Amino acid sequence: MAKMNFGGVIEEVMTREEFPLEKAREVLKDETIAVIGYGVQGPGQSCNLRDNGFNVIVGQRQGKTFEKAKADGWVPGETLFSIEEAAERGTIVMCLLSDAAVMSVWPTLKQHLKPGNALYFSHGFAITWNDRTGCVPPTDIDVIMVAPKGSGTSLRTMFLEGRGLNSSYAVYQDATGRALERTLALGIGIGSGYLFETTFQREATSDLTGERGSLMGAIQGLLLAQYEVLRENGHTPSEAFNETVEELTQSLMPLFAAKGMDWMYANCSTTAQRGALDWMGPFHDAIKPVVEKLYASVKSGHEAQISIDSNSQPDYRVKLEAELKALHDSEMWRTAEVVRQLRPENN
């Protein structure tokens, strides 16, 4: 492990230099890795493992997603099976189903877990709130996690570009004495840039907070609020969108992603610098109580229960599509379609 100074706090991380791909292959040389589910994380993780030389099979129910797996080169009867058969064949069972699907499949999946197997997740949800999900693993298996900090699509894209998406990792249960090395080997195998330690509980609470907060929920709320205020004060849709979203995503985010917020500030006008420094405090003070309320809701399991109740409804997909359509059809995101068309690279 490499010791790194994160803002004055020393943490240990695992890098590719310390745990090279060759070592990962050696650790897992006798394993059959069964990837269960081919939705969000399944394609990226399974294809990266396959391309890195590991013995991988996929378990997926018949349907459109099964056909997608076939299109990606997984062969029925050879490397592509039903969920049950893949779980039976695997020594490492990578459960990459959605949280709701994990709950419905768990009774079946559990029957195929044998002593010494490893049960792998990329999210701590099912285990952290297993009093609600029912996912209580047998005591004679390893229970481990590698959680890429991004979508499976990003994991695959960055892998093909020769880059890596950072991941957290955790060992919940070590029945074999090999749980940690299995975890790290899988983390390197799926294409992680570096690996940092967490727990199932910390990953689940930070992940749900992030999704509802700065990564998705809060950012949409903030963008829409500013867009609406500009529109209500006479600004055109194109102007409101450019000043709210386009400049942020196309100009400023690459700057602070590369070298930090201070560097981005330093590369803006003096007027922008002064205003940003003056107003970041009021925004922080207004938003922090909301984030504290959000975190408390996540930690208590309330947010998990909302997800379980909602995602278990038979009309869940219909309702979800209606909500996403409303988001798509809003003026701000319809304006976005035109703005994207006008980008030089699209002409």
Let me know the largest β-sheet. 10 strands, mixed
Broad CATH class of the largest domain: Alpha Beta
Average pLDDT: 95
CATH topology of the largest domain: Rossmann fold
Tell me, briefly, the overall form. Answer: globular
Distance between the ends: 48 Å
- By CATH's scheme, which homologous superfamily of the largest domain applies? NAD(P)-binding Rossmann-like Domain
Structural class of the helix and strand makeup? alpha/beta
Work out the helix count: 17
Quick structural overview:
The chain is an alpha/beta fold.
Could you walk me through the main structural features you see in this protein, from its secondary elements to its overall organization?
This protein has 347 residues and is α/β, with parallel strands linked by helices. The protein folds into two domains: 2-199, Rossmann fold (3-Layer(aba) Sandwich); 210-346, Orthogonal Bundle (N-(1-d-carboxylethyl)-l-norvaline Dehydrogenase, domain 2), CATH 1.10.1040.10. 57% of the residues lie in helices and 15% in strands. A ten-stranded mixed sheet has the order 1-2-10-9-8-7-6-3-4-5, sandwiched between helices. The protein is globular, with a radius of gyration of 22 Å.
Q: Which features characterize this protein?
A:
347 residues, 10 strands, Rossmann fold, ten-stranded mixed sheet, alpha/beta, 17 helices, N-(1-d-carboxylethyl)-l-norvaline Dehydrogenase, domain 2
